[in-house]
Amino acid sequence: MNMMTFPPRRVAPEAQTWLASLAPLVSPLFPADAAEAFRGYLPLLAALPPAAFNRETLEDAACCARARHGVPSYAELRAVLATWCSEHRPVVPALPKPRDIVPKDERCTPEQAAEILRKYGYVAPSTGAMWPVAQASPMPPPTGETRRQAETRLPATAVPA
């Protein structure tokens, strides 16, 4: 069975520095052991924005570990970072108001739209005419008659040979 593989995410240097700074805060007597435990967290934290690894989240993570008296789990660190990310989500700009294709003073009148429809069989939206698509269609609506019934109704000169 073929397994789909994805390229590894690049770990932000901010995440590495953040975890290296967190290790002595959560385990002052054995910071190397804490750093070793955090090494496995790096690939999992690569999805977070680099701005999430700041002093505020470092203090929150250290306080979370102090309450536990040990190295925080990945879930605890992720919760601290996710809280910061949700509070500092970037503002998405609103879409601009749609503008008219044709300015109102340049739109054609209903009479001009009727003339365009008669001449070309359709009214393009670029004319600015407010014309229903069903009326602009050159195809007549289906009547339910068969081809043979239509041929008998047409003059003999109109029936193809």
What do you see in this structure?
The protein is mainly α and 161 residues long. It is built from 8 helices and no strands. The protein has helices at residues 13-26, 31-39, 42-45, 55-68, 74-87, 110-120, 133-136, 147-153. α1 (13-26) packs antiparallel against α2 (31-39), α1 packs parallel to α4 (55-68) and α4 packs antiparallel against α5. Residues 131-137 have low confidence and may be disordered.
List keywords for this structure.
mainly alpha; 161 residues
Order of helices and strands: HHHHHHHH
Distance between the termini: 61 Å
The average pLDDT score comes to: 75
Uncertain runs: 131-137
* Tally of DSSP helical segments: 8
- Percent helix, as a range, is 40-55%
Number of strands: 0
The largest sheet, given as strand count, sense and whether it forms a barrel, is: none
Approximate shape: elongated
**Radius of gyration from the alpha-carbon trace, in angstroms:** 35 Å
Strand content: under 5%
Structural class: mainly alpha
SSE map:
Blueprint: H1 13-26, H2 31-39, H3 42-45, H4 55-68, H5 74-87, H6 110-120, H7 133-136, H8 147-153
Short précis:
The protein has 161 residues and is an all-alpha fold. The protein has eight helices and no strands.
